[in-house]
Amino acid sequence: MTLTTEATVPVAQRAAAPGVRATARISAATRGSTTTLPVLDGDGPFELRRLRSRRAEARVCIVGAMTAPLGGDRLRIEATAQQGAALHITSAAATLALRGSTTEPATYDVQLTVGEHAELHWLPKPLICAAGSNLRQTWSVDLAPTARLVLREEQVLGRTGESPGHVTTRLTVRRGGRTLLDQEAEYGPGAPGWDGPAVLAGHRASGQLLTIDPAFENHPLEAQLLGGAPEDGQAVLTPLAGPAVLVTAIAPDGLRLRRLLDTAQAAARRPASAGTTHGEQHQQSPAPGTLHAARGRPSR
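Request: output the structure for the sequence above.
Response:
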């Protein structure tokens, strides 16, 4: 019997595999009282742009250079805030997951590393899972004990009047080498019970906001239910050991989800008595996004 691995597959055959393989890298470091970007390396559909700094915070915008992710794509972003640095990452538009020319799922992996006394804000525009799409998205976060993190993610299942695509997400967070949070969710056709009362309850948008800050050790927040009637969407703010706060929200559409997370983001800010963080007063919630511009590959 012959065991076939990637190393034994001919190079020409591997090169013919469907989909785009791309990795973008961002690294932030301190220089005096400001944060600089010694590494800003875009690739494939990722075009990275420096935005104007805010106080000591360096800011980066991810711009879609082509339609992605499509079926078979293997996409990855690696971002590091080195010791004492403050890094804010957003995107220019919503990310649109499409079916593509293969039945293979697309993968979109995000690796975030935050050093001692550093801070990273990951605040992209929403992910829209179009009909027929199949996406596996992961976040892997490694934090130093004194690091701070604000991570916000939004998923909209299908465009207006469209059936939802399929998406699996996993978020793994380690703080000081110990697991703080490890969770997985699956939505869309083929996922058991995803549309039932125990999961989305008929809604088509879900999101979460994770805030990790040593200040919560002395100023913990209490659990809260945010929002009004269940049919309009609701969010739950839950304090975690770590110290951290996790907000989970569902809503009928992306607009109402965004409003819920805006409210939650204000509620989950670092306690005023603990002082302010790099650029905290300048956090902005994602505005309604448009779709990635299609360059290099036709939209489907």
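The CA atoms of residues 98 and 133 lie 5 Å apart.
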